[in-house]
Amino acid sequence: MKHVIIDTDPGVDDALALMLAFSSPELKVEALTTVAGNVSLELANRNALKLLEFLGVDGVPVAPGASRPILREPLDATEFHGKTGLGGAVLPEPTMHLDHRSAVQLIVEKAEELGDRLTLLPIGPLTNIASAILANPRVTEMVAGLVIMGGAFNLTPYGIGNTNAVAEFNIWCDPEAARIVFSSGMPIIAVGLDVTTHPENRLSQEMFQEIDVLGTRRARLVADLCRNLVRRYNGSNLHDPLAVATAVDPSLVETKRYKVNVETVGDLTRGMTVVERRRRKWRKEEANMDICVKVDSGRFLKLFMDRVVHGR
Ligand code: BDR
Ligand code: CA
After folding, report:
1. Domain boundaries of the chain, sorted by first residue
2. Global pTM value
3. Considering 3, 85, 89, 141, which has the largest number of Cβ atoms within 10 A of its Cβ?
4. Cα of 125 from ligand 2 centre, angstroms
5. What is the CATH architecture assignment of 2-309?
6. What sign does the CA torsion over 92, 245, 82, 106 have?
7. Best residue for ligand 1 mutational test, from 123, 173, 198, 203 (most atoms within 8 Å of Cβ)
């Protein structure tokens, strides 16, 4: 079993990712840490608690993290995720409370307690992870590594930007944090737009219809979360669920190992994940990331239906 901390900014696809994580016996979710990204920190906290209550999860701390990127102004993505961040889903106000520790404190504590049995699973901007590294650089040697949702690597025809022409939202939001994380030496598996926006890995209109008529409590939540996005974009991307699925079963994806840096200064290219492809310019040991380039979409979508929708 893999112990994970999910760092999240829920977010429609974050919500689906949490549903997947808590239905996956391969993972032990030690904590959720929240970060401003898709929504403000306040909404992220509330949504995380609401989702845990919906799922009947007890005893998993939710620790509040950064309310803004390290250097940048916070800019949310409520245009996509809806005013509350949860699309058209309406969940009761939470009765559970946030943990008394901050996200950084909790990440450092769990890293000390679990060492290389712990994997960090950030599915939002990397602000909290970078802050934990700055607070205690030994974190980078303690944990097993990270599986991140982030990046547009231009390694498949779909690896282009979704926030500017070349950058993916999570990296764009806090490019300085991403740079700190990418240069930390921690093993990283990156699930980026190259695979999450590939048509075969998306939630299609047909799948949505199938879910929408099921009428179960979980299916209704999934349908309400996704309905608007499915209408607007002819289906819905499953960015964050694919990152969780990769942590659950790495054999679902094929990866390529590269040296990657983050553009932080370009006014057209902020947040671009720059892949060094000039083999003569870097040594193998300098590669810092395994980038997903292919997904077994049949198995991924079956996992999504079984666990997210049916909860089995
Ligand atoms: C990422 O940004 C957010 O909108 C999603 O939740 C996902 O983590 C995709 O670019
Ligand atoms: Ca997210």
Report:
1. 2-309
2. 0.97
3. 85
4. 8
5. Alpha-Beta Complex (3.90)
6. positive
7. 123
